[in-house]
Design brief:
alpha+beta, 460 residues, 25 strands, 16% helix, 8-stranded antiparallel beta sheet, 32% strand
């Protein structure tokens, strides 16, 4: 049997570049797409034909300089209206780090798209127009970033050129945003939900002029911090989930039943977190049956150890009943199973989510029938108060729910694991995603005391 090291190869090698996933968010016309375009352009990550197309379209519109926002706004409706509608994913790299960015929309009705873009992000860039300061949409995006346990946030105070590059304007906005972040219960969480300092870094920029995006600004000598790109290149990011308890959602059961492998039975999937070793005692959930890892097959060979996020096949020493959707975990740290899921959800569908709704709940590779038993509260992002018993959640609402499932689920708290603490609520009739859920307590349950609902029961 071939053995491997306890850590992924190259983890300690400084020559190996790391990957940062980040999302941009902000209100309409705050300059998100322009910032992304500036990052791509000034880091020399734009192909010649792409730039020529942007220049041609900009010239047709009568613009003297290329509209860098066109590098990310790819839909026809986006170009016609000058807004971002869909989440635009872009890849670029520097000598220090590789990046996957998600440019998310700013309109209130597209806030749900930020949930998609930020759900896997290591960092969120929240833009603020220096002329307008912190507005409701800014608070909404900060709350979503905190709710999704995004480890780092950059407050990019944009359009500083339109306020005369005044330090006082920047300082006031940064102070207000930091105060709101404190009300959310941060400065922050690291990988796996662990607390860390310096959740938010404020940077004054002008995406249109290029100030403090890639190159330091000559107009703001009072600012001594990093540029946006410098911060993105140097912010500490850990993708090492090996310190977390091991979780292995079974995706597929492999039984060749061939002459070469007449008795082979393996369970294939991706390790969501932690480390698995041959000889380790494990529990299969939700059945609770126990066994021992007899072998681990990875990339066509047997190994002694495997870690997240490797895709492997496990072989168990006992012939237990294991199928797609089951979770294999070390017996010493196996999660509890439950049929009553308490969680915070971001409602993303057009149709409301009401008490009594029959839904499908998808957790890792498992999908079960469920019913919404309660909606205890809905979060008001203006003052972080809880409105009790709203009866339903509508598009872009964030609220607490209690869901009863037909079969037990092995969920972790989202604060402990973004992978195995998250789930989706799905409409069983047409497969529409209704809500993105985060199991367990969230900042919402630590927010301000519940207040009485207003006359109509809704405030946004």
């Amino acid at each position: 049997m071939t053995s491997t090291t306890d850590q992924p190869a190259g983890l300690a090698d400084p020559s190996v570049t790391t990957l940062l996933r980040f999302a941009t968010a902000g209100s309409v016309d705050d300059g998100k797409s322009t910032l992304v375009g500036r990052l791509l352009h000034d880091s020399k990550s734009v192909l010649t034909d792409q730039m020529e197309h942007v220049e041609a379209v900009s010239a047709q519109r009568g613009q003297d300089t290329p509209d860098l926002a066109l590098l990310t706004d790819g839909l026809r409706a986006e170009r016609e209206q000058g807004i971002t509608i869909d989440v635009a994913y872009r890849y670029f790299a520097t000598t220090r780090r590789r990046f996957i960015l998600a440019d998310t929309p700013g309109h209130v009705q597209y806030t749900r798209n930020m949930v998609t873009g930020a759900s896997t992000a290591d960092l969120a860039v929240v833009l603020v127009d220096a002329r307008n300061g912190v507005i409701e949409q800014t608070r909404r995006h900060a709350a979503v970033a905190a709710l999704l346990r995004v480890p780092h946030v950059v407050l990019a105070v944009n359009k500083m050129d339109l306020v005369g590059y005044e330090e006082a304007v920047f300082a006031a906005i940064a102070e207000e945003f930091t105060a709101y972040a404190s009300e959310l219960g941060v400065p922050g969480w690291g990988a796996g939900g662990h607390h860390q300092e310096n959740w938010c870094t404020a940077i004054p920029i002008s995406a249109l002029a290029g100030d403090n995006v890639v190159e330091p600004s000559a107009h703001m000598d009072w600012y001594g911090g990093p540029t946006v790109l410098e911060h993105l290149e140097t912010v500490p990011v850990s993708h090492d989930l090996t310190a977390c308890p091991a979780r292995f959602p079974v995706q597929y059961v492999i039984r060749p039943q061939s002459a070469a492998h007449p008795d082979y039975r393996g369970y294939a999937g991706q390790i969501a977190s932690g480390v698995l070793r041959v000889g380790e005692a494990v529990t299969v959930l939700p059945s609770g049956r126990t066994s021992t890892i007899e072998g681990i097959d990875a990339l066509g060979r047997s190994v002694d150890i495997a870690w997240s996020p490797q895709s492997v096949t496990l072989r168990l020493s006992d012939d237990v009943d294991v199928s797609r959707g089951d979770l294999i975990a070390p017996s010493a740290s196996a999660p509890a199973t439950t049929q009553d899921v308490e969680a915070t959800v971001c409602h993303v569908a057009d149709q409301p989510l009401a008490v009594g709704a029959r839904v499908l709940l998808k957790h890792t590779t498992r999908t079960v029938k469920a019913i919404v038993k309660e909606i205890p509260s809905r979060l008001t992002l203006d003052d972080l108060s809880q409105h009790p018993d709203p009866g339903q959640l509508v598009t872009n609402d964030i609220g607490r729910v209690v869901v009863r499932t037909a079969e037990p689920l092995a969920l972790d708290a989202y604060a402990d694991s973004r992978r195995t603490g998250s789930f989706l609520l799905i409409d069983p009739a047409d497969g529409t995603t209704l809500a993105a859920g985060m199991a367990g307590e969230s900042f919402a349950s630590r927010a301000k005391a519940t207040v009485q609902a207003d006359e109509e029961g809704w405030d946004f």
